[in-house]
Amino acid sequence: MPNNLYKVLVVDDDIEICNMIEMFLKKEMFSVVKAHDGEAALSKFAEEMPDMVILDIMLPKIDGYDICREIKKISHVPIIMLTAKGDTFDKVLGLRLGADDYIVKPFEPEELIARIRAVLRRTSPKKHRDEGKIIFPSLMIDMNDYSIKINDEAMSIPKKEMELLHFLASNPNKLFTREQLIEQIWGYDYLGETRTVDVHIKRLREKLKSVDDKYEIKTVWGVGYKFEVKKNV
């Protein structure tokens, strides 16, 4: 997946460090949002629904440990703890709270980028992936031959439904507007109604009923849709 489909929330009260991380992430084609205290971090997380969080521990208002704990209650989004502390206790505590990795300041930007990529590969709900193919537990989508399997049972699916499902599943837990989905699947010059997305989503939901305890195409009212991977996957 191109990096620019990944949104990273960077949380640090040191604005210079935040800006430095943002610069390097954008250079690598990641999308970036920032917060400089704990309350803003939780608010940004709820608003932006990032794919990863880079989280400092020592923050005003709410510290990084509590933010990590709150995020992990509601999401599987990976978290890399970022701190000036190198003590083993701090590292172990962060990992016990659900952090996926830990990096100590000062650090080389290249190391942070490498760790981000490694964590995204390790924590992505796509267990296996090659060009055009996505394999989840109980669900396989293969654009190479336009085939889909649900619970190991092959299923026939129209071309546009297939393309829509593949695109959403390639970007788990990421929200898209109808307009974005139209542009991605039907093309920017499409002249039909945006409600055609709703029709295709409804049909896909019917097909995914047998695995809806694991995955759901969720409606965010007034905004759009996302392919939500449940915590138990």
Automatic annotation (TrEMBL):
One of its GO terms (biological process) is regulation of DNA-templated transcription. The modification 4-aspartylphosphate is found at residue 56. GO terms for molecular function: phosphorelay response regulator activity; transcription cis-regulatory region binding. Residues 7-120 form the Response regulatory domain. The keyword Hydrolase does not apply. Coiled coil: none annotated. Signal peptide: none annotated. InterPro entries: CheY-like_superfamily, OmpR/PhoB-type_DNA-bd, Sig_transdc_resp-reg_C-effctor, Sig_transdc_resp-reg_receiver, WalR-like, WH-like_DNA-bd_sf. Gene3D superfamilies: 3.40.50.2300, 6.10.250.690, Winged helix-like DNA-binding domain superfamily/Winged helix DNA-binding domain. The keyword Transcription applies. Residues 131-229 form the OmpR/PhoB-type domain. Residues 131-229 bind DNA. Keywords: DNA-binding, Phosphoprotein, Transcription, Transcription regulation, Two-component regulatory system. GO terms for cellular component: cytosol; protein-DNA complex. PROSITE patterns: OMPR_PHOB, RESPONSE_REGULATORY. May play the central regulatory role in sporulation. It may be an element of the effector pathway responsible for the activation of sporulation genes in response to nutritional stress. Spo0A may act in concert with spo0H (a sigma factor) to control the expression of some genes that are critical to the sporulation process. This is Stage 0 sporulation protein A homolog. It comes from Proteiniborus ethanoligenes.
